[in-house]
Each structure stands twice: as structure tokens, then as C-alpha cells.
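Running co-folding for fe (ii) ion.
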Amino acid sequence: MNNMNTRRKELIDNTTTSRKGLKEVSSGYTHKVPSKGDMRLEKIINSILANEFSLFVKTLNFHWNVTGPRFHSIHEFLEAQYRELLEIIDDVAERVRKIDGHPIGTLKEFQKLTSIVERPGSQPETSNMIADLMLGHEVLQTQIKAALETVTGDYNDPGTEDFLAGLLSKHENMAWMLRSHLD
Ligand SMILES: [Fe+2]
């Protein structure tokens, strides 16, 4: 067995599962990555994905159904917002892949995990549409902050931490844009 293979075997032999179900690899230093047995982080990010998708659909719905004297500007503004959300959705799903999980991708799963409330069959007036979307971005900010706390406390995963902090900032920005239409 050459040196490289010996080293690889040592790493595999030293791999153990900790109390939290995290795989620990000892190789002079210890790092933790989510293991197959630890689905918690995957579920946390998939729940964010579900809310992102619901908020995307809601923004698209209001883009289609907005009426009134501000129609043109709000219609275009909401188009910019749903396009940004679509990019976010793709990034969040790919983050799930990067931690070795599987992003959900069916309407049934999104519906099961989302906490964004929908009101089928009714279209609010323009200011209430904007306020409803703002609330959605606030729900996401709270959810992302909770996820950040879990990642900081339980995982040594600065990549996911950095990703979540960036995501939070995007929602703060989108909420500010929406709020500015209500002032
Ligand atoms: Fe459109």
C-alpha cells in the first residue's frame, strides 16, 4: 500500500459518528460535516427553500393581478422581485446539494414545509399586496436567523454560515424596497 492509500485508510478508520450524528474525521485536526445520519441541516435549508418558493409564487401572482393607478410601476417592480427570488431559489437548492443533501422540488413538498400563508380566490388591493409580500420577507428573515444560530452553534460549516448571512441581507434589501412603496 502506498503512502497515499495508507493515509486514506487512516482517515476512514478514524471516522466516527458523534452524539449529534455528525461525522468526525480526525486527521491532526477535527472538522465536522453533515453525515448521512444527520438530516437536520438539510431539512432546515429545505424549509427555507419551501418558503422562498411560496414567496416567489405569491410575488408572481401579484405581478399578474395588480390593478389600479399604480399598475405599470408595481407590475414592473414585482417582476424584478420575482426574478430575484428565482435566482435565490436556485442558490438555496444548490446549497442543499453542497452539504450533500437533496433539495425538494415538488409542489407537494413545498406546500408541506412552507409557512407562508396563501389566500386563494382573493386579490388584495395594491398596498395590501405590498404589505403581504413584506411580511413574507420578514418570515424568511426570522427563519434564516434561526438557521444561522443552529449552524453557528452545532456545525463547523462557515460556507453555509456565509451563505445564510448573504441570503439574509438579500431579503433585508427586498423588504426595504417593498416598504419604500408603502411610505
Ligand atoms: Fe410578466
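Result summary
DSSP finds six helices and three strands in the chain.
The helical segments are 3-13, 40-65, 71-98, 107-113, 126-154, 158-180.
Job closed.
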